[in-house]
């Protein structure tokens, strides 16, 4: 049986390469379109996600009495993203929290960093539950679609986005709109799920689908590859890009608790051509495969469980401005790398080097 699974895993990997190359071609095609894009709000030919279904999923999750129980991942990422905001030693006049959720980032904001904050989300029920920043910050809440930003060009000092851009269909257009809304020397600070997020669940469902249903269905939404985000932001016109990744590995008793929590987060499958139901036999088969391939023993409690990986991409991009530091022209260096062995002498003579 294990040999059979190995062969199936090889087949899935081969199929994933084909799909990945096709998706890469589509992303590169979207990047080329940026050069001739006149209106960032024009519809894109590439529609992967059902945005209306995503709004309904978020509404159902928000009206649940225990909705706060499932926000542990977004709370942690919001805290880490706000820590990056505090590293920017500046007070921003107008800030937009795009996809604010329950205020995962906003609740950490103080008057020392922000004077006015606009909290945005596509779901009114979430906005009603979102937590405000510290007293002293002027706050307003509005419904905003991330694919069609309503803000004027050159009007915002800082735009924050925490774990909502992975549901955007036209990511190049959204990046371009964000850059246009920023003032010169404005900054975009974001975090999104990417790369190998939930790869364990994806592969288990694929193996179970092949075994029970005779094929693979899109049960886990696709995530943008890490190397593509930098290219998208650069082509949108951002400067001084900073990208870094982090992984959260969370243990669950079984696949069923993981899927239940994803539903509670409002992170259900929203792929446009998703299957409407998951066969019971396929679901139990996927749970068994998940436990067999990835299940392990907890060292502390000596109980068996399954890991779930969430790969988070953090990004910082600035709108170009003449005041920003720029690299020196090529050939202007005065110290050669071949002199690295005489570093002590070079440091002593630093005063003689022209700057």
Spell out the blueprint of helices and strands.
Elements: H1 2-33, H2 51-63, H3 72-86, E1 92-98, E2 114-121, H4 124-129, E3 138-143, E4 156-162, H5 171-181, E5 182-193, H6 199-213, H7 226-236, E6 239-252, H8 255-265, H9 280-294, E7 296-297, E8 304-318, H10 343-348
Helix pairs in contact: 1-6, 1-7, 5-7, 6-9
GO molecular function: S-adenosylmethionine-dependent methyltransferase activity
Domain Methyltransferase type: 96-189
Protein name: Arginine-hydroxylase NDUFAF5, mitochondrial
Briefly summarize what is shown:
The chain has 355 residues and is α/β, with parallel strands linked by helices. The protein has helices at residues 2-33, 51-63, 72-86, 124-129, 171-181, 199-213, 226-236, 255-265, 280-294, 343-348; strands at residues 92-98, 114-121, 138-143, 156-162, 182-193, 239-252, 296-297, 304-318. Strands 1, 2, 3, 4, 5, 6, 7 and 8 form an 8-stranded mixed β-sheet that branches.
Describe the structure.
With 355 residues, the protein is an alpha/beta fold. The chain has a single domain (51-319), classed as Vaccinia Virus protein VP39 (Rossmann fold). Helix content is 38%, strand content 20%. Strands 1, 2, 3, 4, 5, 6, 7 and 8 form an eight-stranded mixed β-sheet that branches. Helix 4 (124-129) links the parallel strand 2 (114-121) and strand 3. Helix 6 (199-213) crosses helix 9. It is globular, with a radius of gyration of 23 Å. The model is unreliable at 7-44 (pLDDT under 50).
């Amino acid at each position: 049986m294990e040999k059979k699974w190995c062969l199936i895993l090889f087949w899935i990997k081969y199929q994933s390469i084909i799909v990945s190359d096709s998706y890469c071609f589509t992303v590169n095609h979207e990047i080329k379109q940026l050069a001739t894009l006149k209106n960032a709000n024009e519809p894109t030919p590439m529609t992967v996600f059902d945005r209306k279904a995503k709004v309904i999923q978020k509404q159902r999750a928000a009206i649940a009495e225990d909705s706060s129980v499932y926000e542990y991942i977004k709370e942690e990422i919001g805290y880490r993203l706000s820590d990056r905001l505090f590293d920017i030693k500046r007070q921003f006049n107008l800030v937009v929290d795009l996809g604010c959720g329950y205020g995962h980032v906003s609740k950490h904001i103080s008057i020392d960093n922000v004077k006015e904050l606009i909290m945005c989300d596509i779901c009114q029920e979430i906005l009603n539950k979102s937590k405000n920043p510290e007293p002293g910050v002027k706050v307003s809440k509005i419904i905003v679609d991330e694919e069609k930003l309503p803000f004027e060009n050159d009007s915002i000092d800082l735009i924050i986005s925490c774990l909502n851009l992975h549901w955007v269909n036209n990511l190049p257009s959204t990046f371009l709109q964000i850059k246009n809304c920023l003032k010169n020397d404005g900054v975009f600070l974001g975090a999104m799920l990417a790369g190998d997020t939930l790869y364990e669940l994806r592969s288990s469902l694929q193996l179970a689908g092949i075994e029970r249903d005779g094929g693979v269905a899109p049960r886990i939404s696709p995530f943008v590859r890490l190397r593509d985000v930098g290219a998208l932001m650069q082509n949108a016109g951002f400067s001084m890009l900073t990208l870094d990744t982090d992984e959260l590995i969370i243990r669950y008793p079984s696949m069923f608790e993981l899927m239940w929590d994803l539903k509670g987060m409002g992170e259900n499958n929203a792929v446009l051509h998703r299957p409407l139901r998951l066969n019971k036999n396929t679901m139990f088969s996927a749970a068994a495969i998940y436990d067999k391939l990835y299940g392990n023993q907890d060292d502390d409690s000596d109980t068996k469980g399954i890991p779930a990986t969430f790969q988070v991409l953090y990004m910082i991009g600035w709108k170009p401005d003449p005041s920003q530091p720029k690299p020196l022209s090529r050939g202007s260096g005065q110290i050669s790398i071949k002199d690295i062995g005489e570093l002590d002498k070079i440091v002593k003579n630093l005063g003689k080097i022209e700057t």
